[in-house]
Design brief:
29 strands; four-stranded antiparallel beta sheet; alpha+beta; Adenine-n6-DNA-methyltransferase TaqI, Chain A, domain 2; 9 helices; four-stranded mixed beta sheet
Length: 452
């Protein structure tokens, strides 16, 4: 759909903004809004309850997505900024640049992180327009250019306050905000549909894997009781046993103090990070450089066919498994991973990897995980080795994996297409906001149209 433009434009005086409609003003944000007006007093009681909003709880499209009820004494030290209805909160941290949201009818005890700038629109700025003005490409780019710091780049609120924005009349601000509310809602609905499709594809993927590694490829194969309640019936010719009878060895690695970046040169040694197996595919870049003053342990280097399993992680990720696809002579196993090697005539490691990711087995792994912290639980070697498995003959295992690879590639292609659709929709959303807020399109008449 094409949109009309304003009849006349003028130079804005701001290089990144270009021309703006003739009757619009361009002002620094501080001229039409105040910043960080209220913080909790030092005397605020530790036993008082707050509704806390962290930076990670705000998204570009969804706004404030969740609040956490906390006693102030248990809240993060950054929980200080008070907000009121009509404020706009905007992240000052570059990692969360698009954590920008209007504050609408907040509870009296709502407090946001000091990682936000709390912008309070004055009489010349409509709060809902302000939200969109702060979400334009131009404003975000200006924040990026003014951010400082290496590991945690951020912008001072005073620097943000000096960034220029367009200021149409109050009536036009209201019209633009109404138009963008309607149009972005349509885009958000399309994005949600694509995300639902991705979830369905994920469920389908899991079902395909689970069926193949517990039922096989032949739907007419005679079945038998496995004798394991959670495993159910299995093909009659498969042998039910524990994984340890297929394994040749299991070991953990070494976790020395490493650099904060991966090994890259051929002669550099790296130590794996536990996340290298997340998603069921081995990622060799998930490693940290071994400092040159430390002596590597060559026996911990990776070989093709090694099955890696996360020993310590969150409950959802612990027990994640992936197979190493090639030799890595200078990449070492870490302490938070198990490496299992199997008898080559009995077992295909790719089959075990898929089996460990199947629905029923994931349930058993999570049940076997121990630890008081939800962010870090552990599984002992026995939780892996004592898992029951119905093992097909080795040649059938290879056929199952080959068939799975083809089927999963199709599902992965559909998932990638859905993600591309989401990316394009989000690009359109951002472009539409920027065009409307900077006056590159005239939406005054369109704002009055009702959705079909």
């Amino acid at each position: 759909m094409s949109f009309p433009r304003y009849p006349k434009y003028k130079l804005s005086g701001v290089e990144w903004l270009g021309d703006v409609p003739e009757r619009w003003d361009v002002k620094p944000l501080k001229a039409v809004a105040s910043f960080n007006d209220e913080v909790l007093p030092e005397s605020f009681g530790a036993e008082e309850e707050i509704e806390y909003v962290d930076i990670g709880s705000v998204s570009f499209a969804g706004g404030i997505e969740r609040m956490e009820t906390l006693l102030y004494g248990n809240a993060p030290s950054r929980a200080r900024r008070k907000v009121r209805d009509g404020d706009v909160i905007a992240s000052t941290v570059r990692t969360y640049l698009k954590a920008i949201a209007p504050v609408i009818d907040p509870p009296d005890n709502m407090v946001v992180s000091t990682g936000f700038a709390v912008i309070r629109p004055g009489l010349g700025l409509v709060p809902h327009f302000a939200k969109f003005a702060l979400q334009t490409n131009f404003f975000v780019d200006a924040v990026i250019s003014l951010s400082t710091g290496v590991s945690y780049p951020a912008i001072n609120a005073s620097e943000m306050a000096g960034i220029a924005i367009t200021v149409p009349s109050l009536e036009e601000q209201t019209q633009i905000a109404a138009f963008l509310d309607r149009e972005t809602a349509k885009i958000d609905q399309l994005v949600a549909e694509q995300r639902r499709l991705m979830e369905l594809l994920k469920e389908k993927r899991q079902a395909v894997i689970s069926h193949a590694v517990t039922q096989g490829l032949n739907p007419k194969a005679p079945m038998k009781l496995s004798g394991i309640e959670w495993l159910g019936d299995v093909p009659e010719h498969w042998e039910v046993m524990k994984i340890k009878y297929l394994a040749n060895s299991i070991e953990q690695g070494w976790s020395p103090q490493c650099e904060g970046f991966p090994a890259e040169a051929e002669n550099e040694w790296g130590v794996l990070k536990v996340g290298c197996v997340n998603g069921g595919v081995f990622n060799s870049t998930e490693n940290k450089l071994l400092p040159p003053e430390l002596e590597p342990i060559p026996r911990l280097a990776l070989s093709r066919g090694d099955l890696l399993i996360s020993r310590a992680n969150t409950r959802e990720l612990v027990g994640s498994a992936a197979v190493v696809e090639q030799d890595y002579p200078t990449l070492m196993l870490c302490d938070k991973l198990y490496r299992v090697r199997f008898h080559a005539d009995l077992c295909c490691p790719w089959f075990i990897s898929r089996y460990l990711g199947s629905t029923a087995v994931r349930g058993q792994i999570e049940l076997g995980a121990t630890g008081a912290s939800a962010s870090m639980v552990n599984i002992p070697q026995s939780a892996i080795l004592d898992l029951a498995i119905a093992a097909p003959p080795i040649e059938e295992q290879r056929k199952i994996i080959a068939s799975l690879d083809l089927e999963l590639a199709k599902l992965d292609t559909l998932t990638a297409e859905a993600q591309r659709a989401i990316d394009l929709l989000q690009e359109r959303r951002t472009a539409l906001i920027s065009a409307a807020v900077t006056g590159q399109i005239d939406v005054r008449a369109l704002s009055k149209k009702q959705p079909a």
